[in-house]
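worker-3 :: picked Putative aldouronate transport system substrate-binding protein
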Amino acid sequence: MKQMTKKLSLAATTVVLASSLAACSSNNNGNDAAASNAPQASNNAEASNSGGNLPTLKRLDVFQGEDYANYPVAKLLEEKTGYKVQYDMLPQDNPAQKLNLLMASGEPYDIVTSYIDMALYSDYAKKGALIDLTPLIDQFGPNIKNAISQQSMDALKVDGKLYAIPNIITYPVGTGILIRTDWLDKVGMKMPTTTEEFEAVLQAFKDKDPGGNGSQNVPFTIKGDLPMIDDLVGAFGMPNPWNNVDGQLVPRVLDPAFPDYVKYVSELYAGGLLDKEFVVNKDATAKEKFSSGKAGAIAIHWADIPGVADALAKAAPDAKFSYVPALKGPSGKSGFGANQGFDRLSFVPKASKNPEDAVKWINASLEPATFKELAIGVEGTHYTVDNGSYTPILPIFNDERNLANNYMVGTDEANYPQYWQARVRKNPVMFEAFDTLNNKTADSDKILNELSVAPYLENYSKNNLKLETMAGDYTVKLIAGSEKLEGLGDFQKKFNAEGGEASAKEVNAWYASK
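worker-3 :: tokens ->
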């Protein structure tokens, strides 16, 4: 799923660092390195080809709560690939800002993995900060070619060159509105199915205070950097950042339904049904309000539920919750945005001292048996399989494979969706939430985000970060009442002038050809 605070910092940083990133292109490491024999597609290919004289690779990865080097998967990968890896990680807050600084400084990482941001990735590629991986994969990457589909590689090409290896998304729907069903019982109401019923439920939560929180009672909380609330935006026909309007893809802030959505959410806010502090809520703040028993509903990703559920069980042992289904809006529309495409990207910076070895390491990690053991462990020890269905063995799976996805550079696209079943079943509460959004939601309410499968689009990639930041900030102000809808036309003109019009022309030229 991709936060306004992060994007604000990133947008400013990108402008400041543009000249520094351009300077990275003068570093000639990588593509003209001397050729060597291609490795065999075996677990220990790299060690056998190098006599064991392998460099220590330097990798930058996403944040995780445990030390990368001491997690069991790190040892597995060292044994299977022959390479030692020095792991650093991005911070939990504002990771993209830190990544920009490291890239601009020329820090010699051999592999960098980050959550997908196509605008940022293409910007790095355009400015010469990344190595074209195509010749290296051709020479050293038979497992990479077998694991990553040509369609995936083509989708990441910038000016005909491939600068990153993707991790595919294995589920369509990530976020919905989680609601306290025990609160529903206390106020004598059923699970809402429409936006009107949802508002009525929130009003009952406010008036009857089923959690006994008094002045701290919060009917519905969200974080302030995501004013487009999943499920609710779908009820107004805008489940994705760009949606089909009369055959054209249109960004939400230009969508004819945008004013109706804003009116609905701003009425929730004005009526005390939406958290009065949502504008300043960070992700952790909103989660704390729900997990402490103060909030009756929250917009949240299913993968975040285990931590919230554990804390809530301590604060309110009898608490129960479930996802609200796809709500029908005033015109009968409903749906969740459904993604295909990629979750993370890994690239080799131009500053890398070991680009060939980086690709060899990636290739060895994607050897089929190695990747499976990386992803879900050993059958009978970490998981069982019955009729093709993978189930984790607990608690060892959580102890030794819970964070395995953070070590992946690319995925075995043909098999990982099956292996992934074990990962999503590692927590029963999380699986129930995942199952509700992804398996129990009707296919008609899972609406494909068309741009999640789009190739590199120059204007869209260049402008999208800035435009999403503009639109998000403006939407927050509209909901909170510091801006009025009467000024929407002027904002839309500014939006188009800042790149919205150019992006729309490019996006819809591609959409028509598709």
